[in-house]
Amino acid sequence: MPKVGYLLPTRERVMEGRYETASLLALAERAEGLGFDSLWVGDSLLARPRHDALTLLAAVAARTRKPELGTAVLLPALRNPVLLAHQVATLDRIAEGRIILGIGIASDWPNIRAEFEAAGVTFEKRIGRLIEGMALCRALWTGKPVTWDGRWKMKDAVLGPTPHRPGGPPLWIAGAVTAARTRAGKHFDGWFPNSPAIAEFAPQWAEVQAGARAAGRDPAGLTAAMYLTLAIDDDERRADDKLNAYLERYYNMPANETRKRQMSYAGSAAGAAAWMKAYVDAGASHLVLRFAGDHERHLDAAARIRRDLGW
Hints:
Elements: E1 3-7, H1 10-15, H2 22-33, E2 38-41, H3 53-63, E3 68-74, H4 81-94, E4 99-103, H5 110-118, H6 126-141, E5 146-149, E6 153-157, E7 171-173, H7 178-187, E8 190-191, H8 198-214, E9 223-232, H9 236-251, H10 255-261, E10 264-267, H11 269-281, E11 286-291, H12 295-309
Parallel strand pairs: 1-2, 1-11, 2-3, 3-4, 4-7, 7-8, 8-9, 9-10, 9-11
Antiparallel strand pairs: 5-6
Helix pairs in contact: 3-4, 4-6, 7-8, 9-10, 11-12
């Protein structure tokens, strides 16, 4: 049975000048009530301003009981991994083991490069920093003394508390190129892209699994997730207009450029159901849905789709 998650509109609320969090927490509770399996938040410091991902998830964790809670996606390279390990361990304790860390290396855009510069992090070194930083987090999450001699240095350091989930939360990484998919299979617990079309998903997922096997890991232990953006409306022209307007405002670029790189759907609920099912048939076991506005209506529509599909 596939899982279905919902992305809270943290970026959208800040863009609207609505900085309060009560409405976001209400949406999280509504989604839980409708049976969504997971709740997600995005991450950015300055490039696409929004609420801090980990802080907000702590509040969501305190207001919900069942859904998994995740980042879609966190940029670990912007953070000191010792501080990140401590924050995530505490967050996972609050959530009682429900945290999933979706992570990414960040796209190469001028505003994102500027974000890295402002954080004092070299953009070109972000991949190595991510790999080492997350390995250090995992070492600290054991609760055992850690001695480390790399970008960060420590001797017999012990982190407390440890995460609720032994070994820490699962790490899912985004990845749109072969090297990234191989890296996902070699180092992480799941693959979390937003780019493959339906026909591309299965062969790209096979690359992730091959990367796991080459590293001596069991690919059956990995999760294949997919991040999808939807505008559901029986009037397909209206749905398409809403999606385009949403993407143009969100990314400040023509919608067709974003739609080439991020899979999105505009149209009827029946069409959305077929589209989502096609990804599951191709191997996705966890779908994370981002809605182009109208969140209450979209949550209801997605819940009906799930019931109709028997999910």
